[in-house]
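Hey team,

Filing this mostly as a record. A colleague (T.K.) asked me to run one chain through the structure pipeline before their review meeting, and I want the input and output archived in the tracker in case anyone asks later how it was produced. No errors, nothing strange. Just documentation.

Input sequence:
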Amino acid sequence: MLPALLFVCIARLWLMPLGSSFWVDEMGTAFVVRHAAQDPSLRAVPQVPASIYYWLPRLSSDVFGYSETAYRLPSALALGLALWLVARIAGRLIHPGAGWFAAFACLSLRGFNYQAADARPYALGTLVAAGAFWFLIRWLDRGRWSDAALFTLAAAVLWRVHLVFWPLYAAFALYAAVRLARADTPAGWRQALTVLIACCLSLAPVLMRALSLYRNAGAHVIAPLPSAMDLARSLKPGLVAACALVGALLGRRVGRGPAAGASLILGWWLIPPLALFAFSWATAHSVFVHRYVDVALPGAALAATAAAGVFLPPARWRPASALLGAAVLLLLGGWNHWLPVHHNSGWREAADRIEPGMPVVCPSPFIEARPPVWRPHVPAAGFLYAHLEAYPIHGTPYAFPYEISPEAERFAAGLVRGTLAPAGRFAIYGQGSILSAWRDWFRACPELAGWRDRSLGPFGDVDVIVFERPPGPAVPSGGNR
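Output structure:
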């Protein structure tokens, strides 16, 4: 029953959302894959093409063609392998029967499942991190140079997948130091020093690139500074407590925790959120974004499995796993929709509703689209307007910045007088607060007094707002909208 339950969970939570509309960053992925890192518009976002991840969707799209499913399929495969490795780690560190429970504990985390249908580097990062931990365990258990080499290779790749994965190196070091200090590994300090030097040499170029990008980090910050509640939520204490309760209800006896692997589980679970939280406050550049913190979610699942293992006898692992899997399918299946969506962004559906020939105001969804990167009359093309390439519209787009500024207002006023008002109708196409801000600005524009506006959506967090001159005499600006 457990393999069948796992298959149904993966089909529902990972595979069925693959064909839904891209969200903003995925459209950025499509742009990088199509244009490569040398495109001039990527100079505004040098951190984006820095990942080695993009060869995966490029290969997939070469084989299967351009589609949301083709771009996302590598992430689903990568996370499937990561799930298998997490189960193996649970079997090694907690109990031989704990693998199924750890797998369903991962599937109980929305952030973990999100990676599977996301055309972004995070699933690959989770796979490489899980592989690095697995080879680290094998190396310290057996002391073989082959395992040490595989760990070094995985560690060298991890930071090249995404620059924000650096806290995991502290988790690697913690587990190795604990094992070496306790002298419960055949790998000695000399071997450990060799591995450390190899890792440092392989990562030195990435470190230099990260430091060069940090000089302009403030231009790319997309999140406010995290609160203590944000940190607490990222640690998933509810999952750990719930799994401990399930173990207590089914086991009713106290067992031994994973003494040898406790430092690995705690490091994977706690260090990334704590490090990104501390870095955000120390530098005032917040990197505490759920997509960045979610690399720690397998650690939370292992912590939950270990908490259940304190109570579960060996014979109860499989019933407990079935109970957890059934709960995941019931509670996270999104059964109010036949086809669950990956992200609450309907860019594809919104683009299809824009009529041919209509002038379209297109605020960029990327924070980097601000002066001086954005300037009046800039073409609505390039990375900062990747959504217009991913889902072409039938109207005539006009590139607007990410936020309203005096320069943007002057440009908008000239566009109203020269293009929008004479056209008799136009649309605003975008998402979030900037869409509402421009709607209010155009409502207050004297040249558009008496015009009506209506929404064609919403399409998730995306919308198309159409402004139209009413037939007949103009009504006062306070008229029907």
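Quick notes for T.K.: The CA atoms of residues 451 and 469 lie 5 Å apart. Residues 474-481 have pLDDT under 50 and may be disordered.
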